[in-house]
Amino acid sequence: MSHLYQGLTTRKSAGRRAFLSDLGLGFTGLALGSMLADDGIVRADATGPEVTGTPGCHFAPRAKSVIWIFLSGGYSHLETFDPKPALNKYAGMTFDKTPFDNPVNSVLHKKRFRSVPSEEVNVRDVYPTIYPMQVGWRQHGESGIEVTDWWPHLARHVDDLCFVRNMWTTDNDHAAENQMHTGRHRLDENQPSIGAWAHYGLGSLNDNLPKFAVLGGPTNSGTRESIGAYYLGPQYGGVPLALDPKNPLPFGQRSDSQSFEQQRREYDLISRLNGLTAVEYPEDQDLLARIHAYELAFRMQAAVPEAIDFAQETADTTLMYGIDQDATKVAGQRLLAARRMIERGVRFVQVFPSAYGTWDSHQQLKVNHTRLCESVDKPVAGLLQDLKQRGLMDDVVVVFCTEFGRTPGLELRSGGTTGRDHHPNGFTIWLAGAGLKRGYVHGGTDELGYHALGEGHYVTDLHATVLHLLGLNNRRLEIPGRRRLEIDHGHVIDDILA
After folding, report:
1. How far apart are CA 140 and CA 152, in angstroms?
2. Cis before 379 (ω within 30)
3. I need a labelling partner for 187 at 20 to 30 A (CA). Which of 45, 306, 381, 440 fits?
4. How many CB atoms lie within 10 A of CB 12?
5. pTM of the model
6. Quick one: which of 442, 465, 466, 468 has its CA closest to 455?
């Protein structure tokens, strides 16, 4: 390698990145370059970290990892974690017939509602006839927090949860799935996802596994942005993994006819050729990402199958997640894999327990939500119990969220009589784990569950809070040539911090 290196150094200097590209020829160099980046030596943050010995952190972190659970389609906050008795009392009445101010006339309605079609043809979010609750509810735990009857397992953990009942967003259609992760409406310029920022800002806990792993997603081709890295570079995007120990990395497994040594030499040659090109084109993010991908894929071939091999788990553990039952098997497997991933040093695991749009109950909300809540209730409760038993609740942040809520009014399109439409004006998410209050409710919606009260929290407030718990200041996550707007930074929800 010495002759090759000497030849390279006679080229016109391309600065620090060229040096790292030179150094990165072969797997040893690539790994060293990766570790230098993880230690902050090549991090783009010009202000540098504030915490010695904590790679990438701006201040002392409260958490090491995040499990981000996203339910695609928009679950009803009213039939889950923000029950409203007034919906039953005034069922069948229009908003203007109740003793409350008509929420459609509120200044908050236009402030938090950004329709893509014109107002003349888009009737969403203004259905005025109140639709009653489709399930009962009661208070649970010492905290007395209200949860509906569709969550019997999760309700037992209510004293470990921190609810935020005044979330709001602006996209009234399913591009809100991307908005929940990137902070931007579909009419705006795209931005890196929350998982990509966590990856970019933090060092690695395990160089043999991706820092940002994705289970069950992206949910379709249109939601790739929800795990994307955009201008940070594709190397910071989420890595989708399949829960098949024999083939967890599609197109990344060595063929039976090839030995480990043969594959190592093949990858080493590819790395050398890519490294030569990287010296000439040090700003080519796609090339740098490809080099990184080859390096990581080679290391992951052994680490990933072990991480998702449930044979090592006890029968009691798999039962806890509901893996023995058809209704809960898929969500249970993905959440158990998430726990195994964070145990092995993955920083950010994004879990999609159900398919794209599954929770989108325009019709038959009672039938759909009864089935859907059952599919995730036990697995999510199992995850919380498992983390607690293993002493991981002090190291991990669990986020449970969706893209928007559902309307208090009955959806009438196409003669509808049994469902609710999309509702970005106010909805509920919850968090649990490191650095968070437990058995706590922050914020709320009005009596009908329409508007998030007060200023409420736009989705980037959630991003800022999660990054804060990881020791990152969202306002300092900038790279040269890319100025983030105020909407991207968000504000930490200080009230929910322990």
Report:
1. 10
2. no
3. 45
4. 7
5. 0.84
6. 442
> What are 440's strand-pairing partners?
162
Phi, psi (degrees; rounded to nearest 5) at 401: -150, 175
Q: Give which of 462, 463, 453 is closest to 82, Cα–Cα.
A: 453
Closest of 230, 224, 164 to residue 197, by C-alpha: 230
Scanning the structure block, which residue is given the tokens 């969202």? 474
DSSP designation for 433: E
Tens place of pLDDT for every residue, the chain, 498 residues?
333 333 333 343 444 444 444 444 344 344 434 444 444 433 434 444 445 445 678 999 999 999 999 999 999 999 999 999 999 999 999 999 999 999 989 988 877 777 665 455 455 667 899 999 999 999 999 999 999 999 999 999 999 999 999 999 998 889 999 999 999 998 899 999 999 999 999 978 888 889 999 999 999 999 999 999 999 988 899 999 988 767 656 555 656 676 667 666 766 776 677 677 767 767 676 766 666 665 666 667 667 888 888 998 999 999 999 999 999 999 999 999 999 999 999 999 999 999 999 999 999 999 999 999 999 999 999 999 999 999 999 999 999 999 999 999 999 888 889 999 999 999 999 999 999 999 999 999 999 999 999 999 999 999 999 999 999 999 999 888 888 999 999 999 999 999
Torsion from C-alpha of 489, 490, 491, 493, nearest 10 degrees: -130
CATH superfamily of 60-243+308-496: Alkaline Phosphatase, subunit A (3.40.720.10)
**Please, which residues bridge with residue 462 across strands?**
none
User: What number of H helices and E strands is found in the chain?
Assistant: 15, 13
